[in-house]
TrEMBL record:
It comes from Aidingimonas halophila. Signal peptide: none annotated. InterPro entries: ABC_AA/LPS_Transport, ABC_transporter-like_ATP-bd, P-loop_NTPase. SUPFAM superfamilies: P-loop containing nucleoside triphosphate hydrolases. This is Amino acid/amide ABC transporter ATP-binding protein 1, HAAT family.
Amino acid sequence: MAEPIIETSHLTKSFKGFKAVDDISLRVEAESIHALIGANGAGKTTCFNLLTKFLRPSDGTIHFKGRDITSLKPDRVARLGMVRSFQISAVFGQLTVLENVKLALQRHRGESYDFWSSVRRLDHLRGRAMELLADVGLTDAADTPAAELPYGRKRALELATTLALDPEVMLLDEPMAGMGTEDVGRIADLIRSVSRGRTVLMVEHNLGVVAELCDRITVLARGGVLVEGDYATVSRDERVIESYIGGAQHA
Ligand SMILES: Nc1ncnc2c1ncn2[C@@H]1O[C@H](COP(=O)(O)OP(=O)(O)OP(=O)(O)O)[C@@H](O)[C@H]1O
Ligand SMILES: [Mg+2]
């Protein structure tokens, strides 16, 4: 088996005795698209928060690229190359789409800046920013204030600002949430194209999207790993059918 880019061992998070994540040993292969699925409350978001160090584990370890990151701070982990989409995707509504991407690029390069005066001084980043906008299909919206974008295109902008950081691993928590069918297809294509040469770990409730996009799927239930495998394996597992559909009814 190839060396995993993310590996957790016995990862556990308790909230006052309640184990939201319970003894999860997860391996994510480099350059794969890996899904975390499971009913509401299964522990998916908590798992993301542990990986990006927004939460401190109660037990267990996390390795990233062979290095123990269990006690690192969130910004260190982001700088090592594991980035969660909302982490940097605080999109500024009053700035244009292009300005938002230029700002994200500038922050990535660690150039010092004074927010308002510098927005106009980012012309040297225009070329790269326009490439990123082309990657996510937003070339025509470059000069539109971000607040005026329809929902699906705002998510595309979020992806562009995430890509501006050039992360090795992107964590996407329900990237399709709240989208209509048309947008779902577009964002799925987008995720596939931006995943080239990167690793994507995503939480997604839309099983059609998971089936189409993901190389590997880990199904969580009550904080633990229920089943892991490719879509064919996971989707015919009785426990998954029961737990997932049973849980979804409470959504
Ligand atoms: N900060 C917290 N304090 C106490 N309990 C928490 C906290 N965060 C999460 N939980 C609990 O941990 C469990 C797992 O929550 P989590 O948000 O990880 O689920 P999820 O799989 O992302 O669910 P969803 O599909 O609804 O997003 C839930 O029972 C939740 O109520
Ligand atoms: Mg969640």
